[in-house]
Design a protein that fits this description.
By secondary structure, the protein is an all-alpha fold. It has twelve helices and no strands. The two termini are 23 Å apart.
């Protein structure tokens, strides 16, 4: 039995527009995250990032950044730098001042990635600003970040039941074409 057959009843409830209770959404998301291909899960996460029923992409990424491990933070920051460009990220970090100004200098020296200890020093609110600018420059950053967090579905659950419900609805829509 494939993953779609295993989860058919669960997914169909999300195609009806009648969302489950918050506690059920968390459990449903766990089941889908365990069974579905990461690419399908990433599509669902991207839908949540793009939805007007959830906070902005920048705010959601900042939330995830704040709850991520050190390596996850580093990977996220470097993904954002690749999308937004080191010059733009350097400008944002320079405006923030303090230790972030030092990081801006690192990027101004031609670096295109930050080391883990450097990425740890960036506050979540600065990540929100970088993510928002990255999205304006390259809207596909949402797909890249979604793919990254599809590998870490436990973190995605911290976005709340509304985001999870949207993600599950997108997975269901993908499977059933509704």
């Amino acid at each position: 039995m494939n993953w779609i057959e295993q989860l058919e009843g669960l997914l169909q409830q999300y195609t009806s527009g009648n969302p489950a209770a918050a506690s059920q959404v968390n459990q449903d998301f766990d089941r889908v995250a365990e069974a579905a291909p990461q690419s399908t899960l990433a599509e669902g996460i991207a839908a949540a990032f793009r939805s007007d029923q959830t906070p902005s992409f920048g705010d959601m990424v900042a939330n995830l950044f704040a709850k991520s491990s050190g390596q996850q933070r580093t990977d996220l920051v470097n993904t954002l730098i690749a999308a937004a460009g080191p010059t733009l990220v350097s400008q944002i970090l320079s405006r923030s001042g303090g230790s972030e100004g030092v990081l801006a200098h690192v990027l101004n020296q031609g670096e295109t990635k930050l080391a883990p200890e450097e990425a740890q020093r960036i506050p979540a609110n600065t990540i929100a600003e970088i993510a928002a600018h990255a999205e304006k420059r390259d809207p596909s950053i949402i797909d890249h970040i979604s793919g990254f967090y599809a590998q870490h579905p436990t973190l995605v659950k911290t976005l709340g039941s509304a985001a999870l419900g949207i993600a599950l609805a997108k997975v269901a829509q993908h499977q059933y074409g509704h």
